[in-house]
Amino acid sequence: MHSFVRSLITEWRRLTLPCDGEAVVVGVSGGADSVSLLLALDELRQTKKLDIRLVAAHFNHHLRGPESDADEEFVRQLTVERKIELSVGHAKQLGPGNTEQNARNARYQFLHRTAENVGAAAIATGHTMNDQAETFLMNLIRGSGVDGLCGMRAVRLAGDVPPPSADGCEPHDAEEDEHGPLLFTTSRLLVRPLLTWAKRRDTEGYCHSLGVEYRYDTMNEDTAFRRVRIRKILLPLLHDFNPRIIETLASTAMLMQSLPDLPSANTGRELKVSDLVEIERHQVGETIRSWLSKQRGSTRSLQLKHIEAVERLVFSGKSGRVVELPGGRVTKSKGRLVYDNN
Amino acid sequence: MHSFVRSLITEWRRLTLPCDGEAVVVGVSGGADSVSLLLALDELRQTKKLDIRLVAAHFNHHLRGPESDADEEFVRQLTVERKIELSVGHAKQLGPGNTEQNARNARYQFLHRTAENVGAAAIATGHTMNDQAETFLMNLIRGSGVDGLCGMRAVRLAGDVPPPSADGCEPHDAEEDEHGPLLFTTSRLLVRPLLTWAKRRDTEGYCHSLGVEYRYDTMNEDTAFRRVRIRKILLPLLHDFNPRIIETLASTAMLMQSLPDLPSANTGRELKVSDLVEIERHQVGETIRSWLSKQRGSTRSLQLKHIEAVERLVFSGKSGRVVELPGGRVTKSKGRLVYDNN
Fold first, then answer.
1. What is this structure's pTM?
2. Which residues neighbour A179 within 8 Å (Cβ) at sequence distance 6 or greater?
3. Quick one: how far is CA A85 from the chain centroid?
């Protein structure tokens, strides 16, 4: 067994991922990372190491004309040859705003629809330590706080609100669009089984060992993208300081994830509604009070009725509402509470 | 009052630093940072905002020949003109090993001796947000773990175990030399009252506003030093990504400092392998680092590769093996790790 496949099954077991007849959807762009993940899972399935129904899912963004279609064709061929189920989605049109962000949203919505259709227990993506290092740096540079330094998680429950890496590769499962939040109520895992151990050269090496070509996204060379500049300019410079910089940054993100309960919810100016919904019900009020105290400089004039009004705001389900408080107000908008002084 | 002086007194009060007749020793190299700190404290003393006995302390490293002597002469003139007490120390000879490290040790020993002599309640140094950002990056790049991302503290008790910024400007109070550890038993503060708010251009600006020249250390241009490469090459690149990168990195370090302490169950001399095997895989490294930090007194010179070597020892299954570390070694024997100094 190739060491890449052995490492994958070890990680798969460590993360206690599905292995008992469940369906797993693998997002496959056609690049080395996702192709290696798909083929290694296929090998594990063929050799009966994993009992899963493997479903590849390719989303054609139609962003790069014939190149995009060639990617799709490549993934079709790859899966046909290996008798792997494939679901293909197509971008209809791009919404306004950040193209990268919209493209990612559309892709993840497609992955979730595919998983819904096949009743998959998990969606797997091919993010590597390189992606983790890049995400860490992007978050660090834009000052996204302690949360951002945690980078991506190897396993998340779909519906969790993702860490704040807006311009990163971090998927946003519960996206809000003009039709309101897209919610997934089933307990489906979003997993990145290459994240903690595989580098890009490992995924490329495994593809080479199989004699499999992979597609190369020319957008990976476009330094108009912040992530590409980080990969092409910043990381090589950091590599001069420390040749193991990818491992170092990725393991720093893992260390950050291992910290006990971060008080991140109440340190920033904004308070995430999803953070509040996840904590114990009786702690919500205390968390709100502590956050308000930091925003206002004190809890002066704050009464229980004020805290309770903010709690109602949190649990109301509606968006864009306001609670007036002594000296200021709390507004709920886009899943966040914001405090403003009068 | 100049805004620099106003910011300094605000921070001085926030940190509840001495202001009631105590002596304060200020380390003065002659550069803009330390000169601005000295002169602003002198202004606060003259205007009766602070009731302190101000003692400047200059250490002549004799590393740069006539330049070093000119620095000393500059500080003598500056303090004589303003009737500020001055204590000058001279490097005898440099020990073996890292010159930067030895120079810093000698300087801090001198600062402590001076403080001891005048019965000072605090030693103040002119570290700025720029230094904090550089320290943060140095620690991040060498993979110094969560501790390192906390950077420097604005206030420490002399004798505290310093954070691990081996090749940084982080002073080591409890230095070990050939005569054994240098310990300071009195409760004296080591303070950096510019750290959280002042940038280098602020210290230079204040000096300019007073018409005071300051000295410029040519070693600040020598890219043989890692810190200089970080300042001259890495930070300008990061500045292209985020023009407020200094503030961003410095405030990230502050955020990290505000996190609750890591669980520290591993205070004993021995670490049970079985305990390590039971905890989450990604927490093992941090547990080992934290344990080693306690055994060695600091994480100085500890790199990711050292931690990983000890991890391999833990998971190897074999018994009785040894990992060599800077200054000591870890031995696995009978299911336990033991650390011994050289």
1. 0.75
2. none
3. 24
Locate B23 and state its tokens: 């002596």
What is the enclosing helix (H) or strand (E) of A293? Answer: helix A281-296
Cβ of A247 within 8 Å of Cβ of B282? The answer is no
Is this complex scored with an ipTM above 0.85?
Answer: no
For residue A317, is it left (φ>0), alpha (ψ between -120 and 50) or beta? left
Q: How many CB pairs under 8 A join A and B?
A: 92
B21 φ/ψ sector (left φ>0, alpha ψ -120 to 50, else beta): left
Phi and psi at B52, nearest 5°, equal -135, 155
Region for A183 from its dihedrals, namely left if φ exceeds 0, alpha if ψ lies in -120 to 50, beta otherwise: beta
Query: Tens of pLDDT along A114-129?
Result: 999 999 999 999 999 9
Q: Residues A297, A321: contact at Cβ < 8 Å?
A: no
Q: Which two tokens stand for residue B169?
A: 């400007």
What is the distance between the alpha carbons of residues B118 and B24, in angstroms, rounded to a whole number? 9
Nearest CB to B262 within list A237, A254, A259:
A259
Enumerate residues 6+ apart whose C-beta is below 8 A from A131: A33, A152, A169, A195
CB proximity B278 to A under 8 Å: no
**DSSP letter string, A146-172:** HHHHT---SEEEBTBPPPS-TTSS---
**Residues A163, A176: Cα–Cα separation, whole Å:** 15
Q: What is the DSSP track for B211-254?
A: T------GGGG-TTSHHHHIIIIIHHHHHHH-TTHHHHHHHHHH
Strands A336-341 and A328-333: antiparallel
- In tens, the pLDDT along A226-280 reads 999 999 999 999 999 999 999 999 999 998 988 765 444 445 678 887 777 666 5
Which H/E stretch holds residue B25? strand B20-27
Q: Inspect the interface and report whether the beta carbons of B304 and A251 lie closer than 8 Å.
A: yes
Spatial separation of the C-alpha atoms in residues A123 and A178, rounded to whole Å: 25
Per-residue confidence (pLDDT) for residue A160, from 0 to 100: 43
DSSP track, A87-139: EEEE-----SS-HHHHHHHHHHHHHHHHHHHHT-SEEE----HHHHHHHHHHH
* CA distance, residue A132 to nearest chain B CA (Å): 15
Q: Determine which helix (DSSP H) or strand (DSSP E) holds B278, and give its type and residue range.
A: helix B273-278
Helix (H, G, I), strand (E, B) or coil at B336: strand
Query: Which segments in chain A show pLDDT lower than 70?
Result: 93-98, 158-187, 260-268, 277-283, 298-300, 317, 319-320
Task: Name the stretches of chain B with pLDDT < 70.
Answer: 93-98, 159-187, 260-268, 277-282, 317, 319-320
CA distance B203 to A152: 39
C-alpha distances in angstroms, A261 versus A147, A177, A249, A311, B23?
11, 30, 21, 21, 41
User: CA of A143, closest CA in chain B: separation in Å?
Assistant: 5
Whether residues A140 and B249 touch (CB distance < 8 A) is answered with yes
Of B141, B241, B281, Cβ closest to residue A245:
B141
- Pairing relation of β-strands B122-124 and A20-27? unpaired
Question: Alpha carbon of A263 to those of A97, A152, A287, A333, B255: distances in Å?
Answer: 32, 18, 9, 21, 10
In degrees, rounded to 5, the angle at the alpha carbon of residue B252 between the alpha carbons of residues B251 and B253 is 90
Residues A27 and B205: their CA atoms lie apart, in Å, by 54
- Sign of torsion over alpha carbons B221, B224, B228, B232: positive
